[in-house]
Amino acid sequence: MRTSDTVAIEQTEDMESEYAILVNANTGVVVGERNADVIMNPASMTKVMTVLVAAEQIENLDDETTISQEAVDYSYAHDCSNVGYEVGETVKVRDLFYGTILPSGADAAYELAMYTAGSQEAFVDLMNGKLAELGLADSAHFTNCVGLYDENHYCTVYDMAMILKAAMENDWCREVLSAHIYEIPASELHPDGIVLSNWFLRRIEDKDTQGEVLGAKTGYVDQSGFCCASCQKSNDGTPYICVTGKAHSNWRCIKDHVTIYTTYGRVSESSSEASE
Q1: Active-site residue 217, yes or no?
Q2: Domain containing 240 — which CATH number?
Q3: CB–CB of 57/113 below 8 Å?
Q4: Which one-letter DSSP state was computed for residue 35?
Q5: Which residue range forms the structural domain that includes residue 248?
Q6: Domain count, the chain
Q7: Which one of 68, 104, 234, 268 is the catalytic residue?
Q8: Is the model's pLDDT at 202 over the cut of 80?
Q9: H-assigned helices in the chain
């Protein structure tokens, strides 16, 4: 929702991303934006929707499932980031959620989709149904659960902000998206276990964002550059959602999010104080 107070986010040496938006997560009001309604490929930010849809469908997170040849082949055939699961490995469903978000594992995301709906195709139907439920179907459409480029796989940064807002309102999704590190226990195939890390959260935590960044998911494909969706709780307690796209590096995404939170979040706080 835009208001008369919504400001333009300027592209400067401190904010490079071509697409950007900052949303007050309490009210849904757009605080600032730049090309926020331009269609883009969300890349691996797609996985925020993947875990949201799965979380709403799955009842037992401690259920176990077996990693399929299909999931591993899909991840490697498309040169995706992966957790490193082996075909035939037995894993807990909760670990698939962390594997989908922290290392952006396509093997985990694909297996999670198959566990949830029986096939990626059926799961994608659930994803698009969720877009309709959120009122985003006019500008967003997904064709896969991992964020591979497809001309029919798209959304805007505004759409992704609303998806992340919904995910952060889901208790389980918020826990996964907020994890800096997660350790998958040792198993026969992985005697030392597997340590998963959310690169963005671990790299931004020592930056001054005038608050605390609580959750994040990055993404990259050539067509959308480096992009990221994050959620921050500002020093005054206001929660914000920031989404950016078309930056030249992951580090640039971090700098852009810091700039947006400190520059435009502060503008929002000042406006709120002035109206009291």
Answers
A1: no
A2: 3.40.710.10
A3: no
A4: S
A5: 7-275
A6: 1
A7: 104
A8: yes
A9: 46-57, 69-77, 93-101, 106-117, 120-133, 157-168, 171-177, 199-204, 250-275
